[in-house]
Design a protein that fits this description.
The N and C termini lie close together (about 10 Å). This protein has helices at about 80-85, 95-105, 110-125, 140-150, 175-190, 205-220, 235-240, 255-265, 275-280, 290-295, 315-325, 330-345, 370-375; strands spanning about 1-10, 25-35, 40-45, 55-65, 65-70, 130-135, 155-165, 195-200, 225-230, 245-250, 270-275, 300, 360-365, 380-385. The protein has 13 helices and 14 strands. Helix 3 packs across helix 4 and helix 11 crosses helix 12. The strands form 2 sheets. Strands 5-6-7-8-9-10-11-12 form an 8-stranded parallel β-sheet. Strands 3-2-1-4-13-14 form a 6-stranded mixed β-sheet, with no helix packed on it. The chain is of the alpha/beta class. The structure holds N-(iminomethyl)-L-glutamic acid (NIG) and fe (iii) ion. The site of fe (iii) ion has 4 residues, from loops.
């Protein structure tokens, strides 16, 4: 079954060998042919080959589906009051994670699954066609295992985050918790996960603990990624680069040496910036230009979670990146699509080059520029992800 989508005012392919030759591979007045869910042809509207079916997109812009490479979607409850307190001046230190852990442990599988179904539908409506999600609100083996098992019903991109914080029952025995995460918890979670993550931060896990856990994960086939330098500078970013992590995330307090390390590892380790977290914790945004100008590969993601960033809107994150972090609109779109795919080491998504999956969003706008130009406006008219 083939379909030609025609009358596309602007088609973003992320294939620099087509269209305007920019990283976005922009074509104007274009058409796109999809064959059994895969892009089989892109080009000028007049030159499209015949197909079984034809859809007139009436002058809309088409972009690759967003790839949200960092989210925490398996949880119960919310922390709206904590957000309100922060907006009244209470600082964020990750301490509220324990509130969500208690709610998540008390929830049934059906409740966790229903909440994830709701968020997954919300992501899809917002143009996200691939998303990652982490465990990390169970923090004991059966709850981490069921978090990942439930997550797997919605995405292949599942991440074991047993090392989110040390749970209360281990506060006097944090070494015991690290041993458990790197031992039996990892062993039980491994079949349900593709990635392993650690919150490497003051108040969570230090760089030696992070190394122990990430190396144990890598030894059993889980690829590392990590949370680093969200609340203060530290050695986490350089640890991620040293371990060949797929991504180092937050990077809010990245130093020049961190950025140099990320730039030299740009083919391996992606710097994932999460502006929803700075927005919702009223923190200063990282300067995206430092990363981009140094040559790091940069992704943008939502960090959707009930504490520090309760948004599913990649367009919102892009608008912040453009307005306050030095990104051009084109760079923000690339980072929210191809950048996210790189962070998940996926070549089949994140662009609309011939051979990639036909995952795309049709905008209620003639150009991708409107995503940042019209902040907060729901511009995703349709999402195709066959
Ligand atoms: O990425 N930083 C650690 N984890 C989450 C926040 C989790 C929470 O506050 O519930 C984050 O921001
Ligand atoms: Fe996170």
């Amino acid at each position: 079954m083939s379909t030609v989508y025609t009358n596309i005012a602007e088609l973003v392919t992320n294939d620099p060998t087509v269209g305007d030759g920019s990283p976005l591979g922009l074509l104007t007045d274009a058409a796109l042919v999809v064959d059994d869910g895969v892009v089989s042809w892109v080009g000028a509207r007049g030159g499209a080959p015949a197909a079984d079916d034809s859809v007139d997109l009436q002058g809309a812009a088409v972009i690759p589906g967003f790839v949200d490479s960092h989210a925490h979607l398996v949880f119960a409850g919310d922390r709206a009051h904590e957000f309100a307190a922060r907006m009244a001046g209470v600082p964020y230190d990750g301490g509220g994670i324990t509130t969500t852990v208690a709610a998540t442990r008390a929830a049934t599988d059906a409740q966790l699954s229903a909440n994830l179904a709701r968020l997954s539908a919300e992501l899809r409506r917002a143009g996200v066609t691939t998303f990652e999600t982490k465990s990390g609100y169970g923090l004991r083996t059966p709850d981490e295992v069921r978090s990942l098992r439930i997550a797997r019903e919605f995405t292949t991109e599942t991440t074991f985050l047993g090392a989110h914080v040390v749970p209360a029952e281990y506060r006097v025995n944090r070494d015991g918790y690290v041993r458990s995460v790197a031992g039996e918890m990892l062993h039980e979670c491994r079949p349900h996960a593709r990635w392993i993550d650690v919150f490497c931060e003051r108040g969570a896990f230090d760089v030696d603990e992070a190394r122990t856990i990430l190396e144990a994960g890598a030894a059993v086939g889980l690829t590392p990624r990590l949370h680093a330098a969200q609340l203060a500078p530290g050695e986490g970013i350089r640890l991620g680069v040293e371990l060949g992590a797929a991504s180092v995330d937050h990077c809010t307090f990245a130093t020049d040496a961190d950025i140099e390390a990320l730039a030299s590892a740009s083919a391996v380790t992606v710097a994932t910036l999460l502006p929803g977290a700075e927005f919702s914790t009223r923190a200063a945004y990282p300067d995206g230009r430092r990363f981009l100008d140094a040559g790091a590969t940069v992704a943008l993601a939502t960090d959707c979670n009930p504490g520090s960033s309760y948004t599913t809107s990649m367009a919102f994150c892009m608008a912040i990146a453009v307005r306050d972090m030095g990104f051009t609109p084109a760079e923000a779109l690339w980072s929210a699509t191809a950048g996210g795919a790189a962070a998940l080491r996926r070549r089949d998504v994140g662009g609309l080059a011939v051979g990639q999956r036909a995952h795309f969003a049709v905008l209620d706008a003639p150009s991708h520029l409107h995503l940042a130009y019209r902040p907060g406006v729901p511009l995703i008219a349709d999402v195709i992800a066959g």
